[in-house]
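TASK: fixed-backbone design
INPUT:
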């Protein structure tokens, strides 16, 4: 075979390379016969000595080469047809896969549309529920706040009126106490004058003493009346404290309901956020599948459904609307909290007025304690605050427990010669039978010193069987 018949066609060449090789082989096969004719003419023109036998042999070789080329051409055509069939089958399978991917994408798009529709319905349902809950809560809160504000305003007006009347009563009582103190001073001066001027006139002194005792009884009766009035005021004060406690409990309940509503709103927001997270994940998966489709088939255009993007944009806008409603509800909650703060400030003002009322009552009690005609020692007694300031590790002696302050004052008057006035203290304890007045004597650093002080007391004080008490227990009972 000549060098012109050596055609090399690789089996893994692509379609364009095989087509070019086929055209080249066809052209080479077509120019064999004219070349032989020119060779024969050239031989004849040059007068070569080539014989006819050699020419025939050369022609036979040319014919064999031609037949071999023809067979090779046919083989190449068969191979090309096989490759073309393989390519057609491959393109058919690729087209099937592409159509299948398109169907999958359409199915996923329809599922996304259905899911977006379901999410939209759920959002509408939640919006309706939230609006109904908000309207219901607004109605309930408005009614409760209106009733609470009216009740608080009425109670504040009553408190103001009561405080004003109590202040007027306190002023009148202070005037009465001052007048009685002035009269007692006048009685003391009159007694001194009568004692110095008429020592021999015992009958007149006895008459003045009886008159003084009658005045003392009148003053004691007035003091008892003032004590009863104080107890009535204290009962009213306890009622006011109970009302304030009711207001505090109602405020705490309102705060708890507001907290529950805020928790429900936060839960609703979390649930809505979770559903949209799953929607975003589904969108990301669809986008990933689209990118893979582009990578597999470069010549196919993107055919992602445009309805999905519009549905997502609509869902996002509705999410923004729900967030705006939640923000409005949060602003309403903050306004409600401001109203609650104002109510708390009103309650604090009421507490301040009650504190001033308690202070006025304490001042009145102090003034009454000082009103003792023959009990000068009662005015210098230490109160419970002095007991609270002492060392809790020390000890004291409790002399007596009296049912009233008058009994305690009379006990001090009877034993004033045996007691140091600056070492006496008293406290008031509340019991089921009423108030009890406890009289204490001295502060001793050790238990032995306190017992020695009891042993040194006169027989008149030993009758009541005084006992030692730690100051810690006394202070705990006062607190």
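OUTPUT:
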């Amino acid at each position: 075979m000549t060098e012109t018949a050596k055609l090399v066609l690789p089996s893994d060449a692509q379609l364009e390379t095989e087509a070019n090789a086929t055209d080249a082989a066809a052209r080479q096969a077509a120019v064999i016969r004219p070349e032989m004719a020119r060779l024969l003419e050239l031989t004849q023109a040059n007068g070569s000595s080539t014989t006819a036998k050699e020419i025939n042999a050369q022609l036979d070789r040319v014919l064999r080469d031609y037949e071999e080329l023809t067979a090779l051409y046919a083989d190449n055509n068969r191979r090309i047809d096989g490759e073309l069939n393989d390519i057609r089958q491959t393109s058919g399978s690729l087209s099937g896969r592409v159509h299948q991917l398109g169907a999958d994408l359409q199915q996923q798009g329809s599922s996304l549309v259905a899911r977006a529709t379901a999410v939209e319905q759920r959002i509408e349902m939640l919006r309706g529920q939230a609006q109904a809950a908000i309207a219901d809560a607004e109605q309930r809160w408005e009614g409760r706040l209106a009733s609470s504000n009216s009740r608080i305003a009425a109670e504040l007006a009553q408190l103001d009126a009561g405080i004003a009347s109590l202040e007027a009563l306190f002023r009148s009582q202070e005037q009465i106490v001052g007048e009685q103190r002035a009269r007692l001073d006048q009685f003391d001066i009159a007694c001194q004058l009568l004692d110095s001027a008429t020592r021999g006139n015992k009958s007149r002194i006895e008459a003045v003493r009886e008159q003084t005792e009658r005045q003392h009884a009148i003053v004691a009766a007035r003091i008892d009346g003032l004590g009863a009035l104080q107890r009535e005021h204290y009962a009213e004060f306890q009622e006011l404290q109970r009302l304030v406690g009711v207001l505090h409990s109602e405020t705490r309940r309102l705060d708890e309901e507001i907290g529950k509503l805020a928790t429900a709103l936060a839960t609703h927001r979390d649930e809505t956020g979770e559903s949209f997270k799953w929607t975003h994940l589904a969108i990301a998966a669809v986008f990933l599948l689209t990118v893979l489709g582009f990578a597999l088939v470069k010549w196919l255009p993107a055919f992602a459904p445009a309805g999905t993007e519009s549905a997502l944009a609509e869902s996002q806008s509705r999410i923004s609307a729900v967030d705006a409603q939640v923000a409005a509800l949060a602003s309403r909650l903050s306004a409600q909290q401001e109203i609650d703060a104002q109510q708390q400030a009103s309650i604090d003002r009421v507490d301040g007025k009650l504190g001033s009322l308690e202070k006025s009552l304490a001042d009145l009690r102090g003034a009454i304690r000082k009103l003792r005609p023959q009990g000068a020692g009662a005015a210098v007694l230490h109160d419970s605050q002095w007991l609270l300031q002492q060392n809790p590790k020390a000890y004291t002696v409790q002399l007596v427990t009296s049912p009233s302050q008058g009994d305690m004052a009379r006990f001090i008057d009877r034993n004033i010669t045996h007691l140091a006035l600056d070492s006496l203290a008293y406290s008031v304890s509340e019991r089921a039978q009423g108030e009890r007045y406890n009289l204490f004597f001295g502060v001793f650093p050790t238990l032995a010193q306190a017992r020695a002080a009891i042993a040194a007391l006169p027989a008149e004080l030993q009758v009541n069987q005084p006992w030692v008490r730690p100051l810690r227990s006394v202070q705990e009972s006062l607190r």
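COMMENT: Residues 1-19, 24-32, 297-306, 371-379 have pLDDT under 50 and may be disordered.
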